[in-house]
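Tutorial handout. Part one gives the primary structure; part two gives the three-dimensional structure as C-alpha cells.
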Amino acid sequence: MKRIEKILGLSIISFAIIFGAFYIFLVIAGKQIIAKQIENLIHKKTTVEFFGFNPGFHLEIKKLNIEGIFKADSIYITPNLFGFFTGKLSFNNLKLIRPELTYIRTPPVVVEGIKPNGEIIASLPAKPIQPEVSPSSTKPLPFAFRRIKIKDGQINFIDQSMSNKSIKIIIKEINCSVSNLYLYPQRTMTSFDLTGKIPWGDSEVQGQIEFNGWINHFKKDMQASLKIKDIDAVYLYPYYSTWVDLDKARIEKAKLNFSSDIKGLNNNITAACHMELTNMVRKPLEAGESEEKASVITNKVLDMFKTADQGRVELNFIIPTKMDSPQFGFENFKTAFEGKIMQSRQASAFKPADVLTFPVKLIESGAKTFSDLGKALVDGIFAIGNDLGNSIREKAVVK
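Part two.
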C-alpha cells in the first residue's frame, strides 16, 4: 500500500513538474510562436505581450497587435478538444476585450509597364480587377465557435478610394454576442446581437447601430433586424459631392434614420427597408440674395415628400436577394420613389402630366444601383429642365 502511495505521489509530482515546465515554455516562447505564425500568414508585424493557459486549458492572450490591422487588450479562448479530434477547429468560448479592427480601402493599382530603369508605370483603373479564384480556395476553414463575446470593440473604416477626399467612419463601443457559429455545414442556428455607436467628426450627436437576429446556414433561413439612427448625411458628403452641391441647395445639416426587417427562407431574402430624413437645417438667404435653381428644386421635392407622409420625408422599399449571393438592387427603390411622387401629385405644384414625366426622367438618367441614386435624382430632376423649370421658379417667386 505504501509502495502504491509512493508511486502515486511520484506520478503527481512528475506531472506537476512536466506541466510547470511546459507552462513556463509556453509563457516564454508561446507569444513568439503565435506572433510568428500570424506574421507568416498575413505578412504584418505582430507582437504579443503575454500568452498563457491554466489546467483547464483556457488560453489567454494579452496585448495582441497586428500592425495597422488589428489589436486587442485581451483574448480568452477555450478550445473544444473533442472537436480537434474530429478534424475541426472547435472552440467553446472566444472572448475579445477592446478589440480594434482597421480597414483601409484604397484604389487598386494596375501595372501598365516597366521603364528601362525598372520603375513601374501604374495607373488607377475605373473598376477594380477581380482575381480569378479556384473553387477549392473558396471553401471555408472548418472553424466552429459555440460562444463569441466582444466587449467595447471598435471598427475603423478609412476610404481613400475617392479622388476628392478620404473619409473615416468609426463604429465604437461595440458589444456583440454570437452563439453557434459554424464555418462548415451544420444543422444548427446561429444567433447574434450587436450594438455600437458611430461618431460623426466633431458632432456631439452620435449615430447608433443595432443588429440582431438568427441565421440557419444549412437551410439558408434567417430573420434579422437592422437599425441605424442619426446618420450624418453632411459628413458623408464626399460620397455624393460630384452629384449634389450642398451650398447651392442650402443644406447645412441633415440626418437619416435607416431600418430594415430582414427575412429569409430557402435562400430567398426579403429586406423591408425604411429610410427617413430628419433634422434638416437649411441655410437662410442673405439680404437681397436670389434663390438658386438647385435650392428651388430641393424645396419642391421636399414638399412633395412631406405632403405624402404628413410632414415627414421618408421612403419605404423592398430588397429581394439571395443569401448565398446578396445583392442590393435599385428597382424596388425606384418603384417606391415613383409611388411617392404619384401620391403627392394632387398637392404639388406639378401638373399630373409632369408628375408622370418625373420618374421617367429619373430612369433615363441611368440609375441602376443604390450608389447611383444621388446622381439619378439630380440628373433626373435637371433633365426635366425646360418642361418644369419656369413653372418652379414662378411658384417660388409667388411664395
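Part three, for discussion. The chain has eight helices and 16 strands. Confidence is low (pLDDT under 50) at residues 126-137, 349-399.
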